[in-house]
């Protein structure tokens, strides 16, 4: 597909604006408009919704989102070189694209978007996981967004959807799956990008839950999973020793063998342990 609108092909846009990807910004541009449209469709029905896009670059995914009917797209771009190309897209879709020149880590989405809100992005590799964690740990749940459709390195995507017993299973899987449903919807080889990264990539679609899957204090759950997976080769009675002298009894009360290791324990049991630890601390 060379065009999904009246705008030039992306290679021509990059040449016209001298937009060579910069490694320091974690940039790898996806130039096939067939693929960017496919990612936009993976986000679901965007009509009547605002979409937040991080790191649009020359605007391939931006064009896909607008062509798929997004009510409005707010694109946050740190690289000033990309702004003229994005301005051309905004002119082709009057009133539907707002481009913010700034750092996504400092961006206040609530001030620029109206519900319902979806986040769709080919995230820069250097900030992708940090942004995901921020979106999953707001002060109040549910968050401002309804779904996240995000591209990561394949290894990160597999960590997000990992199940107990796998080497990829860890804190990131627990954090995502506690508050949302996640699945990989698209896998992409390095040659799909310009320049080609050294790793494969994958798109993950994450839909928020109305409330966490199991009750637990997020701070306590975070402390437990940090300690457990921080020393994942150790038995839990050793890795969680710092939580208190009664940890072995608390593990047993949560139906967890003290000799088990973190990667063997389900989200449900980690949440049960968090509630028991809370009770032991006298916190209601």
3D shape: elongated
Integer-rounded radius of gyration: 21 Å
How much beta, percentage-wise? 15-25%
Mean pLDDT, to the nearest integer, reads: 93
Question: What would you give as the CATH superfamily of the largest domain?
Answer: Vaccinia Virus protein VP39
User: How many E-type strands?
Assistant: 9
Number of helical segments?
Answer: 11
Task: Supply the CATH class of the largest domain.
Answer: Alpha Beta
Structural domains: how many: 2
Q: N-to-C terminal Cα separation, in Å?
A: 58 Å
CATH topology of the largest domain: Rossmann fold
| Secondary-structure element order, N to C | HEHEHEHEEHEHHEEEHHHH
Q: Order of strands across the biggest sheet?
A: 4-3-2-5-6-9-7
CATH architectural category of the largest domain? 3-Layer(aba) Sandwich
Category from helices, strands and their pairing: alpha/beta
Largest sheet: 7 strands, mixed
Helix content: 25-40%
Q: Which regions have little confidence, pLDDT < 50, spanning 5+ residues?
A: none
């Amino acid at each position: 597909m060379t065009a999904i609108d009246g705008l030039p092909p992306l290679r021509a846009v990059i040449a016209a604006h001298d937009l060579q990807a910069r490694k320091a910004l974690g940039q790898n541009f996806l130039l096939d408009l067939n693929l960017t449209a496919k990612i936009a469709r993976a986000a679901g029905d965007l009509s009547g919704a605002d979409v937040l896009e991080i790191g649009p670059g020359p605007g391939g995914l931006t064009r896909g989102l607008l062509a798929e009917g997004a009510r409005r797209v707010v694109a946050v771009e740190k690289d000033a070189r990309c702004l003229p190309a994005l301005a051309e897209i905004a002119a082709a879709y009057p009133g539907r694209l707002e481009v913010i020149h700034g750092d996504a880590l400092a961006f206040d989405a609530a001030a620029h978007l109206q519900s319902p809100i979806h986040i769709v992005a080919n995230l820069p590799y250097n900030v992708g996981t940090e942004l995901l964690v921020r979106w999953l740990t707001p002060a109040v749940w549910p968050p401002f967004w309804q779904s996240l459709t995000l591209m990561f390195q394949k290894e990160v995507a597999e960590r997000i959807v990992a199940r107990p017993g796998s080497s990829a299973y860890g804190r990131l899987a627990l954090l995502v799956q506690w508050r949302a449903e996640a699945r990989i919807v698209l896998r992409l080889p390095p040659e799909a990008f310009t320049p080609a990264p050294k790793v494969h990539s994958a798109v993950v679609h994450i839909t928020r839950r109305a409330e966490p899957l199991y009750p637990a204090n997020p701070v306590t759950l975070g402390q437990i999973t940090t300690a457990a997976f921080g020393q994942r080769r150790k038995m839990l009675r050793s890795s969680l020793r710092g939580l208190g002298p009664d940890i072995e009894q608390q593990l047993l009360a949560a139906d967890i063998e003290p000799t088990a290791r973190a990667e063997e324990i389900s989200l449900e049991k980690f949440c049960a342990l968090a509630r028991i630890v809370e009770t032991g601390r006298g916190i209601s």
